[in-house]
Amino acid sequence: MVKSSSLLTTVLIITSLIGFNGAIALAEKPATLVNRATAKSCSPIGRILTSTDRRWQAGTLLCQGDRLYIPPTAQIGVFCFLNRQILPPQSGTILAKCVSQPRTSIRPCSTATRRFCPKTKGPLDLASTPELLSPLGRILLQGRPRLSWRQVKDASSYSVSVYGKGVNFVQTVGDTTLSYPQSQPAMAWGSAYKIEVTALKGDVPFSAAQTTVNMLPESEAREIALAVERIRQLKLPPDEVAYLDLDRLYMNRELLGETIATLAERVKAGSQSSSVLRTLGDRYLEAGLVIEAGEQYKKAIDLAQKAEDAQELSKAQAGWEKVLSYR
User: Fold this and answer.
1) Could you tell me the residue range of the domain that residue 279 belongs to?
2) Could you tell me if residue 3 is inside a domain?
3) Among 34, 80, 113, 308, which is least packed, fewest CB within 10 Å?
4) Rounded to an integer, what distance in angstroms lies between the CA atom of residue 175 and that of residue 164?
5) Angle at Cα 318 formed by Cα 313 and Cα 323, nearest 5°?
6) pLDDT value at position 91?
């Protein structure tokens, strides 16, 4: 980072909170800026995506406790991690707009509050229904999702139906997966669809499960695609991008399947980041995939212990405790 040589030439001023009333005062001396990407003491709350000020480069992490004032002569665009919002390039006080927490569908889950735990999918769910395992989440970005469901005892085949705006097809398969047929129209932007899987024994249906998914509006899909491209152009460490930037971006639109796919790709590539594995565990748990969540939490605990990362260790252990609440 660049050090300011004099107060007169300082364009970006870092301030700090003083007093009991939370008033903000200007720094009396130019601050020495640390390398946010490697500072262990940094609790990231955002990232600079665009900047016309050479003192703050695009890609720089912003940390808890920072206060930025950008004068009218410069503009900075910031991705706020806490509320998962992308602020367009602007001047003035910026980080005050990043402080609110995002909405989340995850409620406190523990052995004492089992009623708040997400419904499980897969082997822990003993109901004999072909519950859908993918796509994950109720909001979709892909109009031709891969479909998969839980295997049902005594089922010889499965009838899969998808219907909604412009789509209405039924297909019977002998496996528990179905690639979206290329001969069928893709799901339309901004529309809702029902996916139903029926277990068959011979020709006789005996168990069924259905879910409703919603395609993201096209305008929002374009915004996400532009944001993803902008983030990737920064050429940041891929693990950091996955669990910090893209996870927040996707979860802001409740695109659970997209962030799980991104994090799982990093794990498959051999990631040794406890943050990646722990975040993937969090998302699996939110999807109700408890066994998968537990596997990631255990790996994250091991990595955090080896790295002596107390903060990540605490988060991973908290996730593991949630998994245990299902047993």
Assistant:
1) 218-324
2) no
3) 308
4) 24
5) 125
6) 61
